[in-house]
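#random but structural
TW: two for the price of one
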Amino acid sequence: MVEMTKGAIQAITKDLKQYSTPSLNDKLYLHFKGWKKIEPCLGEYTGVRALWLEGNGLHELQNLENLQELRCLYIQQNLLQSLEGLDGNLQLDSINASNNSITSIGHLSHLKELHTLQIANNRLTTAEDIAHLKECPSISVIDLQNNRIEDPAVVDTLAAMPNLHVLQLQGNPVTRKVQHYRKTIIARCKGLTYMDDRPVFEDERRTVEA
């Protein structure tokens, strides 16, 4: 089994001409290494602000609590089933968790600086699976496309997000179940400026709300 080790991370930073002192690095490129687990050795990189872990075989998020400066986390294309494990990463601004096996959005309400959540191509199905978003008022960009969401009640959750500006929902069965889908979403989500494949212009909003 391929393991994340202190030596392996040091070899990557050396190859990329980064700092040999772990805490001085603000970016870590640990993607496509075949790692199954985030090991404690990653905790030495306390200054990291952007962390790439995509394309590994991660089943859970762990040993990230020392990365308290982390702003951007790229964990797409893994085997994650939840977003639990980010309790100490209070500065997170953006998370890409697309292409995993996540069945429910949760464990994010403590992230008061989180603005962007990409969670496309997962296993979200019901309105309850995304209800946690109502507890995440800072999120302004949400990518939910190509999940299995089919419950029209998800519109209530989206409408309850006070700062939602960008929504990607295409590729879900719900788009065929909500009557006048685009008009309904735009009418309910007052701050939306971009939806699915195109912007929401003022002319369109005026027509919808007339």
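TW: number two ↓
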Amino acid sequence: MLCRTIQPPIRLVQTQLCRAIQVPRRRGHNRPLPGSGASPFSVDKLPCGRPRFNVVFCNPQIGTNVGSFGRTCIGLGGRLHLVKPLGFDIDDSAVRRAGLDYWEHVDLMVHDDWRAFRRHYADESRSFSDHSGTDGVKSDSAALLGTQSFFFTRQAETSIVHAGPFSSERPIYLFVGAETFGFTEEIVSDYREGGWGLELAFPMHQPDIVRCFNVATSATMALWHVYNHMAAQL
């Protein structure tokens, strides 16, 4: 009589496999994965204590995109900036639902318009710049050169895969435009004429079918790219 090989149920094998690779965790503590080479200091903070990663949504139209990305910001230690006008109410329940119960913990800054954001940006960046204006005081445009600023657009000639390494001493700003029209002419002319922003694009496998990625997806890929580079550098 032929012997039969009895295979354990697939669900049982999957359960045993998950248990075998499960990383032990203590309540209230986040442990790095074994062999991850995680730095003993926080990757998401500059030496001065300010956020290293800043993601700027310029005139976002869909609240759920912002809400879902808020969770990513918390996980990777980024600060989220929203530049008005917005296509939704920031207190809308849909935004909060998309961010689940994490929304209240998002490091969020809302700016009335592009000019308001630019003033804030220049003030925060001033201490990282060695460039001075003609009167000996660092001008707004000069101060912006003290940061690392990247604008994500389909028109860019440089791919994000070629971006890096990044300075560990200066903040990084990642800009994404509106879902329907991208960046306004005011924003584009500002960073192009001022020379303080580098345009980047994402690789696209079938651009004739997929015009662009979802805004929240784009922001997530951008943030993870710089985070990954910075973690390797530090």
